[in-house]
Design goal:
alpha+beta; five-stranded antiparallel β-sheet; 5 strands; 31% helix; globular
Length: 167
Protein backbone atom coordinates (compact mmCIF):
# COMPACT_ATOMS: atom_id res chain seq x y z
CA UNK A 1 0.00 0.00 0.00
CA UNK A 2 2.83 2.37 0.75
CA UNK A 3 4.22 2.41 -2.83
CA UNK A 4 0.70 3.04 -4.14
CA UNK A 5 0.33 5.98 -1.80
CA UNK A 6 3.66 7.40 -2.94
CA UNK A 7 2.37 7.62 -6.50
CA UNK A 8 -0.88 9.39 -5.70
CA UNK A 9 -1.72 12.92 -4.67
CA UNK A 10 -1.04 13.10 -0.91
CA UNK A 11 -4.17 15.18 -0.34
CA UNK A 12 -6.39 12.41 -1.69
CA UNK A 13 -4.57 9.58 0.13
CA UNK A 14 -6.23 8.11 3.16
CA UNK A 15 -4.49 9.21 6.38
CA UNK A 16 -4.07 5.60 7.60
CA UNK A 17 -2.38 4.55 4.36
CA UNK A 18 0.14 7.40 4.64
CA UNK A 19 1.02 6.30 8.18
CA UNK A 20 2.05 2.73 7.28
CA UNK A 21 5.64 2.35 8.43
CA UNK A 22 8.14 1.59 5.71
CA UNK A 23 10.38 -1.36 6.50
CA UNK A 24 13.08 -1.87 3.91
CA UNK A 25 13.67 -5.41 2.69
CA UNK A 26 17.18 -6.60 3.46
CA UNK A 27 18.84 -9.16 1.23
CA UNK A 28 20.94 -11.62 3.14
CA UNK A 29 23.71 -13.63 1.56
CA UNK A 30 21.74 -16.82 2.30
CA UNK A 31 18.56 -15.51 0.66
CA UNK A 32 20.57 -14.47 -2.38
CA UNK A 33 21.48 -18.12 -2.99
CA UNK A 34 17.89 -19.38 -2.73
CA UNK A 35 15.29 -19.32 -5.52
CA UNK A 36 12.71 -16.54 -5.76
CA UNK A 37 9.35 -18.11 -4.90
CA UNK A 38 5.95 -17.05 -6.20
CA UNK A 39 2.64 -18.54 -5.05
CA UNK A 40 -0.57 -17.24 -6.62
CA UNK A 41 -4.12 -18.11 -5.63
CA UNK A 42 -6.71 -16.86 -8.09
CA UNK A 43 -10.30 -17.49 -9.09
CA UNK A 44 -12.04 -17.46 -12.44
CA UNK A 45 -15.71 -18.15 -13.18
CA UNK A 46 -14.91 -21.84 -13.64
CA UNK A 47 -12.36 -22.66 -10.94
CA UNK A 48 -9.94 -21.62 -8.22
CA UNK A 49 -6.27 -22.16 -8.96
CA UNK A 50 -2.98 -22.25 -7.11
CA UNK A 51 0.11 -21.63 -9.20
CA UNK A 52 3.58 -22.00 -7.68
CA UNK A 53 6.78 -20.95 -9.44
CA UNK A 54 10.32 -21.04 -8.03
CA UNK A 55 13.03 -19.44 -10.17
CA UNK A 56 16.76 -19.08 -9.63
CA UNK A 57 18.94 -17.19 -12.10
CA UNK A 58 16.12 -17.42 -14.68
CA UNK A 59 15.96 -21.24 -14.40
CA UNK A 60 12.67 -22.82 -13.28
CA UNK A 61 13.45 -24.85 -10.15
CA UNK A 62 9.87 -25.85 -9.29
CA UNK A 63 6.45 -25.21 -10.77
CA UNK A 64 2.96 -26.54 -10.12
CA UNK A 65 -0.67 -25.82 -10.92
CA UNK A 66 -3.66 -27.07 -8.89
CA UNK A 67 -7.35 -26.51 -9.50
CA UNK A 68 -10.60 -26.63 -7.52
CA UNK A 69 -13.68 -26.72 -9.77
CA UNK A 70 -16.29 -24.18 -8.71
CA UNK A 71 -19.33 -26.31 -9.54
CA UNK A 72 -18.21 -29.54 -7.81
CA UNK A 73 -15.53 -28.44 -5.33
CA UNK A 74 -13.33 -31.24 -6.67
CA UNK A 75 -9.58 -30.66 -6.21
CA UNK A 76 -7.01 -31.82 -8.71
CA UNK A 77 -3.33 -31.35 -9.42
CA UNK A 78 -2.75 -30.41 -13.05
CA UNK A 79 1.04 -30.52 -13.19
CA UNK A 80 4.21 -30.63 -11.12
CA UNK A 81 7.65 -29.80 -12.43
CA UNK A 82 11.02 -29.77 -10.74
CA UNK A 83 14.56 -29.73 -12.05
CA UNK A 84 14.47 -33.49 -12.73
CA UNK A 85 10.91 -34.45 -13.69
CA UNK A 86 7.72 -33.09 -15.18
CA UNK A 87 4.40 -34.74 -14.32
CA UNK A 88 1.22 -33.87 -16.17
CA UNK A 89 -1.77 -35.00 -14.12
CA UNK A 90 -5.53 -35.28 -14.44
CA UNK A 91 -6.92 -33.66 -17.57
CA UNK A 92 -3.39 -32.56 -18.53
CA UNK A 93 -2.23 -36.20 -18.50
CA UNK A 94 -2.94 -36.63 -22.21
CA UNK A 95 -0.79 -33.64 -23.22
CA UNK A 96 2.58 -34.23 -24.86
CA UNK A 97 5.51 -32.03 -23.93
CA UNK A 98 8.83 -31.61 -25.66
CA UNK A 99 11.74 -33.63 -24.30
CA UNK A 100 13.86 -30.52 -24.79
CA UNK A 101 11.67 -28.11 -22.80
CA UNK A 102 13.80 -25.10 -21.93
CA UNK A 103 14.73 -24.81 -18.26
CA UNK A 104 14.02 -21.07 -18.45
CA UNK A 105 10.52 -21.44 -19.91
CA UNK A 106 7.75 -22.04 -17.36
CA UNK A 107 5.64 -25.08 -18.21
CA UNK A 108 2.52 -22.91 -17.98
CA UNK A 109 3.91 -20.71 -20.77
CA UNK A 110 4.75 -23.79 -22.85
CA UNK A 111 1.22 -25.14 -22.38
CA UNK A 112 -0.16 -21.73 -23.33
CA UNK A 113 1.79 -21.81 -26.58
CA UNK A 114 1.05 -25.44 -27.40
CA UNK A 115 -2.46 -25.99 -25.98
CA UNK A 116 -4.03 -22.50 -26.04
CA UNK A 117 -7.35 -23.97 -27.22
CA UNK A 118 -7.64 -26.23 -24.16
CA UNK A 119 -10.41 -24.90 -21.89
CA UNK A 120 -8.36 -25.02 -18.66
CA UNK A 121 -5.17 -23.62 -20.18
CA UNK A 122 -7.22 -20.86 -21.78
CA UNK A 123 -9.00 -20.12 -18.48
CA UNK A 124 -5.69 -19.75 -16.61
CA UNK A 125 -3.98 -17.70 -19.31
CA UNK A 126 -7.00 -15.40 -19.67
CA UNK A 127 -6.76 -14.66 -15.94
CA UNK A 128 -3.06 -13.81 -16.24
CA UNK A 129 -3.64 -11.63 -19.29
CA UNK A 130 -6.59 -9.79 -17.73
CA UNK A 131 -5.46 -9.54 -14.11
CA UNK A 132 -1.66 -9.24 -14.04
CA UNK A 133 0.07 -6.16 -15.39
CA UNK A 134 3.41 -7.39 -16.69
CA UNK A 135 6.21 -4.91 -17.26
CA UNK A 136 8.33 -5.37 -20.35
CA UNK A 137 11.56 -3.51 -19.68
CA UNK A 138 12.34 -3.66 -23.42
CA UNK A 139 9.26 -1.54 -24.20
CA UNK A 140 10.13 2.18 -23.91
CA UNK A 141 6.53 3.14 -23.09
CA UNK A 142 6.32 0.67 -20.22
CA UNK A 143 9.81 1.64 -19.10
CA UNK A 144 8.52 5.17 -18.54
CA UNK A 145 6.12 3.74 -15.92
CA UNK A 146 9.10 2.54 -13.87
CA UNK A 147 10.40 5.52 -11.94
CA UNK A 148 14.14 5.16 -11.33
CA UNK A 149 16.42 7.85 -10.01
CA UNK A 150 18.90 9.64 -12.25
CA UNK A 151 21.73 8.70 -9.88
CA UNK A 152 23.82 6.04 -11.60
CA UNK A 153 24.69 4.34 -8.30
CA UNK A 154 21.09 4.03 -7.11
CA UNK A 155 19.85 3.04 -10.57
CA UNK A 156 22.49 0.30 -10.73
CA UNK A 157 21.54 -0.90 -7.24
CA UNK A 158 17.80 -1.05 -8.07
CA UNK A 159 18.41 -2.87 -11.35
CA UNK A 160 20.71 -5.37 -9.62
CA UNK A 161 18.06 -6.04 -6.97
CA UNK A 162 15.46 -6.70 -9.69
CA UNK A 163 17.91 -9.00 -11.45
CA UNK A 164 18.78 -10.90 -8.25
CA UNK A 165 15.07 -11.44 -7.56
CA UNK A 166 14.64 -12.89 -11.08
CA UNK A 167 11.96 -10.33 -11.92
Amino acid sequence: LRPLCATCDKVNCDYKVRKIPVEPFAFSEQAKDRPTEFELFFRTKKAEYRYILHVKEEVVIYESLDRVKMDTGRRSALFRRNSETTELKGVFGKFKISEELSTTLPLLSYLGITYKKNEIVNDVLDWFEDSVDFLNYGDPYQELRTAITKSKEIKSLVLNIIKEMDL
